[in-house]
Batch of 4 targets.
Target 1
Amino acid sequence: ITTHGTHTPSSMDRAVLFAQDPEQALRSIEQIRTDTHSKTQLSANGRIYASQFSWNTIAQKHIELYEMLLG
């Protein structure tokens, strides 16, 4: 559960719930707590989103960048 700002990547849309105020955050917590389907989907989507930040993924992106720069 987080806020949505101007620099929030659209790829986060399926991985988190957005709250504009504390009351909305509490409603989101309650939704996750009581709705098994929502909890399962958010968890799966969060893992998918987070995978782009693994050490292996970041290392591969660096290798690709270096190869591009070196020609």
Target 2
Amino acid sequence: SVDSALVQRAIKALKQLGVTETTSKKTIATEANILNRLGVECLVWGPGVSVGNSYAPNESVRMSDLLMAVD
């Protein structure tokens, strides 16, 4: 939930770094669903904007977004 303490801390950290956050709820394939079923609150975060090509041969992310994520 966007209201959870974990998500709010992540949003605060991103703002401190000057990153504009966008929160959304998506159905994707990660291990987070397994951990969540065990009662572990999870946050999946990645660089860039999802452009509808996830898990496709042409999946991509802008280099500038990737570099910002690793800084």
Target 3
Amino acid sequence: PWVAEFRLASGDLLQSVPLSDVRLETSDCVIIAADHSSIDWERVGEKASTIVDSRNAMAVVDSPRASIYKI
């Protein structure tokens, strides 16, 4: 939620998008790079199908629907 856009060394621009239910449901994979307290992790675990969690943010979710991979 804190980085609106990010330019890669190649010059490509990546832009943040709203974390909506539709976005979570239609994403192939959700990557958690920061465990912000403002994010509803229960909702993410229910709506996403696959999550790569680098911050152990999903540890607070009791029974997520998503497949979760911790790195």
Target 4
Amino acid sequence: TPISFIQTAFHAVVAYVNSIQGICLLNEQVVFEDSLDNPIRSIERDPVTGTIYVFTGKIYFLIISYSNSYQ
């Protein structure tokens, strides 16, 4: 069950408890997938840069960075 997601112009980044997926909105295929050792608490996008971060209880991960023209 997804705990959170963020949508970009062409992708949905979906966070689960211990994994994350990037899904193409054009063809619904998974284009990125990764598992994490620590449970994910949230996924957020920086409104200025468009950078997407995944936060766990111990660390954060930079997932994707878009220029403002692609948001």
